[in-house]
Structure to design on (316 residues):
């Protein structure tokens, strides 16, 4: 007998999960993974040169196992296509039965934005107020939405495409500014395609916190290696960050080693104290983890079963 499973699209996911809930559940996911309650094998990259790559991202926890099949095609904005698209297969860890098919784009946007908010709250100096959002595409806007939900009321949006920064600023109630005006803020959030560094050592100021979200695969970087090396370093997961993240250039050239890098989960569980002084510059390298996706998918399924969202079902 074939199972009927719901297909939960972008609108259903966004209806089910507010930025506030995304932050709360993704934080819980980081903690559970740090405590070995959830499992996550390494993500697999399948290159599609010269345009981008595909990734297969599995994880299990909270009664479900997921596999996200997701893309990163950074040049797609010039073709009027999204940079990131994907689908998530959800199965039951007790029976192995297929439970749902979930849109990957909305889940990725929510969990990536949530990670930026969680890292900022955990690592910024207590006086941080203004967000400098550099790159105002889909993930920049959701990072802004989650940072605003986390209490950062003011921000400056900078983008090489003035229409993108204007749209983000209007949506968030923030202002549009130049790259240097955004860099003058307290919480810098980088969400560009990562082809070229946008931040160098001259942009670093004592007390600053940086979320580097755009470099989520091999060969991408938003900061120079000199700038990375001068920061106090944090990441979502060293295994990914050292091979396909903002820390990769510094790690592969031997300028940083794992001993200098703390995973966010260790800070959230209290195994690490986090920021060591008001003067250091903290850098959080977000490469994007399947456990973050799992945390969001669990909420979506719970809301579906509670009847608060509707979805068509298919049978294979
Ligand atoms: N860390 C993660 O978990 C994670 C998750 C999803 C996506 N990403 C990555 O984030 C990046 C952005 O994704 P997106 O979907 O928002 O892309 P997008 O194409 O929608 O947006 C990128 C924006 O950056 C702007 N931009 C490009 N170069 C710039 C520069 N030098 N200075 C300022 N702005 C610049 C573009 O004009 C565009 O508005 C991609 O590299 C993607 O792979 C990371």
């Amino acid at each position: 007998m074939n199972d009927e499973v719901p297909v939960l699209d972008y609108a259903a996911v966004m209806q089910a999960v507010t930025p506030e809930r995304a932050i709360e559940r993704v934080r819980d996911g980081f903690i559970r993974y740090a405590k070995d309650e959830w499992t996550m094998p390494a993500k697999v990259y399948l290159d599609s040169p010269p345009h981008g790559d595909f990734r297969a991202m599995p994880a299990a926890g909270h009664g479900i196992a997921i596999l996200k099949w997701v893309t990163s095609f950074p040049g797609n904005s010039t073709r009027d296509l999204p940079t990131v698209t994907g689908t998530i297969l959800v199965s039951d860890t007790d029976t192995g039965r297929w439970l749902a098919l979930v849109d990957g784009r909305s889940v990725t946007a929510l969990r990536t934005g949530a990670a930026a908010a969680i890292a900022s709250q955990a690592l910024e100096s207590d006086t941080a107020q203004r967000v400098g959002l550099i790159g105002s595409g889909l993930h920049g806007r959701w990072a802004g939405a989650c940072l605003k939900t986390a209490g950062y009321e003011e921000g400056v949006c900078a983008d090489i495409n003035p229409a993108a920064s204007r749209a983000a600023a209007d949506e968030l109630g923030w202002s549009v500014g130049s790259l240097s005006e955004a860099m003058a803020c307290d919480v810098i959030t980088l969400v560009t395609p990562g082809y070229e560094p946008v931040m160098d050592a001259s942009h670093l100021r004592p007390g600053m916190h940086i979320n580097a979200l755009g470099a989520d695969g091999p060969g991408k970087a938003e900061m120079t290696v000199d700038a990375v090396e001068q920061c106090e370093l944090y990441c979502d997961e060293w295994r990914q960050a050292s091979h396909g993240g903002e820390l990769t250039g510094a790690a592969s050239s031997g300028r940083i080693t794992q001993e200098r890098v703390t995973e966010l989960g260790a800070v959230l569980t209290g195994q690490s104290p986090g920021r060591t002084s008001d003067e250091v510059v903290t850098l959080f390298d977000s490469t994007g983890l399947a456990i973050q996706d799992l945390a969001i998918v669990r909420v979506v399924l719970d809301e579906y079963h509670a009847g608060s969202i509707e979805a068509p079902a298919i049978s294979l």
